[in-house]
Specification:
By secondary structure, the protein is mostly helical. The chain folds into 2 domains: about 1-95, lambda repressor-like DNA-binding domains (434 Repressor (Amino-terminal Domain), Orthogonal Bundle), CATH 1.10.260; about 125-160. Helix content is about 55%, strand content about 0%. α1 runs parallel beside α6 (about 85-95), α2 runs antiparallel to α6 and α5 (about 65-80) packs antiparallel against α6. The longest helix has 22 residues, at about 125-145.
């Protein structure tokens, strides 16, 4: 199977007839293993439609950049092939897909709401706990008022006064 990849990545001009793109190489490897698209899809958790677009190299129907690279990487790992060679094929086909370290000038950075000054997330669990306790208290008083709670369970006189 690695012969497919080495033929496609060699610089020999006579290898152009045998050259595969990343999608065709992955498809050939999948078919050599006797796997269907639905079997691969259920194992690597990408849809069979996306895998079909990848194998037919319909790049406009696939995500760009890092998500595409992740799809190809997971597919190559599943087929137990040389991941780096497949990613080089992908980069040769669609251009560089690796993650960039900084945000480009035409993109805005996402606002960091919900973060403290040190970058740590703000803990608001006590607010949720208080809200849950209030809701449970209201539900309990409603149940007492409707007569759903037996008289024996009401140990305080003020709770018995709520009951109609």
């Amino acid at each position: 199977m690695t012969q497919l990849l080495t033929k496609a990545t060699s610089d020999d001009p006579s290898a152009d007839e045998l050259a595969y793109g990343p999608g065709a190489a992955l498809k050939a490897m999948r078919e050599a293993r006797g796997l269907s698209l639905s079997e691969v899809s259920s194992r690597i958790k990408y849809s069979a439609v996306q895998l079909g677009f990848l194998e037919s190299e319909q790049w406009s129907r696939l995500p760009e950049g890092v998500p595409l690279r992740g799809l190809v990487r997971n597919y190559a790992r599943f087929l137990d092939t040389d991941v780096d060679a497949v990613l080089r094929l992908l980069d040769n086909e669609v251009g560089p897909t690796h993650a960039y370290a900084s945000v480009s000038s035409n993109q805005r950075a996402l606002p960091q709401t919900g973060l403290a000054a040190g970058g740590e997330p703000v803990r608001r669990t006590w607010i949720w706990l208080l809200l849950i306790l209030i809701l449970l208290g209201v539900a309990g008083l409603y149940a007492i008022n409707r007569g759903w709670v037996p008289e024996d369970w009401l140990i305080f006189d003020w709770l018995k006064a709520i009951k109609p």
